[in-house]
Amino acid sequence: DQQVKQNSPSLSVQEGRISILNCDYTNSMFDYFLWYKKYPAEGPTFLISISSIKDKNEDGRFTVFLNKSAKHLSLHIVPSQPGDSAVYFCAASGGSEKLVFGKGTKLTVNP
Amino acid sequence: GAGVSQTPSNKVTEKGKYVELRCDPISGHTALYWYRQSLGQGPEFLIYFQGTGAADDSGLPNDRFFAVRPEGSVSTLKIQRTERGDSAVYLCASKLTVNTEAFFGQGTRLTVV
């Protein structure tokens, strides 16, 4: 069973607008959540994280929101830039050191 | 080096052969991870080292897969009797402490023909 789900395989937005990437999880033991960005032929690059004791974490243009009751998190990118075009992975951990990843959402930011 | 280094970048091998994939973590990072990413999927956990010991190898798919980290730094992932289904990108990551971000290498793309 898939414990971390990213239900949108792709998302396309205009430059300057907001990008919202969504992630749902099923395991209530998860207490740490991360977003990674991946360009082709490169490894995933850490973007931002949030602990379950918080409901929001912000870093520049990137904000992650966590709704524990809904087991849902989202990544907001404002304003979106063409260089943000990449595959975004949501990942979670809890009770162990291993990260459980979603399948990713491919974001395309059009100039 | 500044980041996690993986060699080779690409490896093509024949079915049934043995392969070794190498990971050089960020200096000072005691935790090291191996993940495997198949096409269209997110990375899947294989094994985690804390220092020299494998703290969690629950993700290794079968006994053809083995990993070592003899001196607590460089790690080698070993795959015996490779099968076509082993074709994937093998990612290594390291991190400093628990509940911090893991830093990934660029991966080794393994193709079994």
Structure description:
With 111 residues, chain A is mostly beta strands. Chain A has strands spanning 4-5, 10-14, 19-25, 32-38, 45-51, 56-59, 62-67, 72-77, 86-93, 100-101, 105-110. In chain A, the strands form two sheets. In chain A, strands 2, 4, 5, 9, 10 and 11 form a six-stranded mixed β-sheet that branches. Chain A has a five-stranded antiparallel β-sheet with strand order 1-3-8-7-6, with no helix packed on it. With 113 residues, chain B is mostly beta strands. In chain B, the strands form two sheets. In chain B, strands 2, 4, 5, 6, 9, 10 and 11 form a seven-stranded mixed β-sheet that branches. A four-stranded antiparallel β-sheet of chain B has the order 1-3-8-7, with no helix packed on it.
Gist?
The complex is a heterodimer of chains A (111) and B (113). Chain A is 0% helix and 54% strand.
Count of helices of chain A?
0
Number of strands of chain B: 11
Helicity of chain B, as a percent range? under 10%
Q: State the end-to-end distance of chain A.
A: 38 Å
Strand content of chain B: over 45%
Mean pLDDT reading of chain B: 94
Secondary-structure element series of chain A: EEEEEEEEEEE
Uncertain parts of chain B: none
What structural class do you assign from the helix and strand content of chain B? mainly beta
Q: What layout of secondary structure does this protein have?
A:
The complex is a heterodimer of chains A (111) and B (113).
Chain A: E1 4-5, E2 10-14, E3 19-25, E4 32-38, E5 45-51, E6 56-59, E7 62-67, E8 72-77, E9 86-93, E10 100-101, E11 105-110
Chain B: E1 5-7, E2 10-13, E3 19-24, E4 31-37, E5 44-50, E6 53-56, E7 65-68, E8 75-79, E9 88-95, E10 103-104, E11 108-112
Parallel strand pairs in B: 2-11
Antiparallel strand pairs in B: 1-3, 3-8, 4-5, 4-9, 5-6, 7-8, 9-10, 9-11
Throw out a few tags for this protein.
heterodimer; A: 111 residues; mainly beta; six-stranded mixed sheet; five-stranded antiparallel sheet; 11 strands; 0% helix; globular; B: 113 residues; seven-stranded mixed sheet; four-stranded antiparallel sheet
